[in-house]
Design brief:
The strands form 2 sheets. Strands 1, 4, 7, 8, 9 and 10 form a 6-stranded antiparallel sheet that branches. Helix content is 23%, strand content 30%. Helix 1 runs antiparallel to helix 3. It is α+β, with helices and mostly antiparallel strands.
Length: 197
């Protein structure tokens, strides 16, 4: 049974579930993002001195500017069906970092995704951000950016929450449930075979 539980935990980790705050560069591609339905964005957290803008490649205009928009601000990005790509444009340094794409200079990924805000290691959401996130429907994905090349790689300089958005390679919850059920069934059969042998 322990092997089955370990397999389920491994499958969850493989599916992209974050488990700890980052303090080192992301060297493995976190994957592209996909969206289905009405996507709303919340400016969840800021700890950046540089001025940056959050953009989306098919959205006209700036989603957020960390020196103009307050934490807790919500923006409706419209309906999506398929790929969605966010870009953090650091106006102070001239750098731009794209979700799922390694930076051409330092070679690291500057975006980290998680379904849990606590994975960013900055404490709880502020009251304004928590209220705004509570107003989102469906599952919420947090995207944290490292806003500088050769920075501290804590991925909490700017954090945004998105509804109807997930990593493209993460299976749907029903798929994970089916996988878990199959693993449990295989474990039960294996155990029965051992008892009869």
């Amino acid at each position: 049974m322990r092997n089955i539980l370990a397999a389920i935990a491994g499958a969850a980790l493989t599916a992209g579930v974050a488990v700890a705050a980052h303090a080192s560069p992301v060297t493995t591609n976190p994957g592209s993002l996909t969206a289905s339905g009405d996507v709303k964005a919340v400016f969840a957290f800021a700890d950046a001195g540089d001025t940056s803008q959050l953009l989306e490649t098919s959205f006209s205009g700036v989603i957020f500017n960390n020196h103009v928009d307050a934490v807790g601000t919500t923006k409706d990005l419209g309906n999506y069906s398929g790929a969605i790509t966010f870009v953090l444009n650091n106006l102070s340094s001239g750098y731009a970092f794209t979700t799922g794409v390694a930076d051409s200079v330092d070679g690291f990924y500057h975006a980290f995704y998680s379904t849990h805000f606590s994975d960013f290691g900055v404490g709880p959401l502020s009251g304004a951000a928590a209220s705004a996130v509570a107003g989102l429907s469906g599952p919420v994905l947090y995207v944290g950016f490292e806003d500088r090349r050769f920075g501290d790689y804590d991925y909490n300089d700017l954090i945004f929450a998105f509804s109807s958005t997930r990593p493209a390679d993460v299976p749907e919850p029903a798929t994970l449930a089916l996988l878990g059920t199959g693993l449990v069934g295989a474990g039960v059969l294996s155990r029965r075979k051992r008892k009869t042998a």
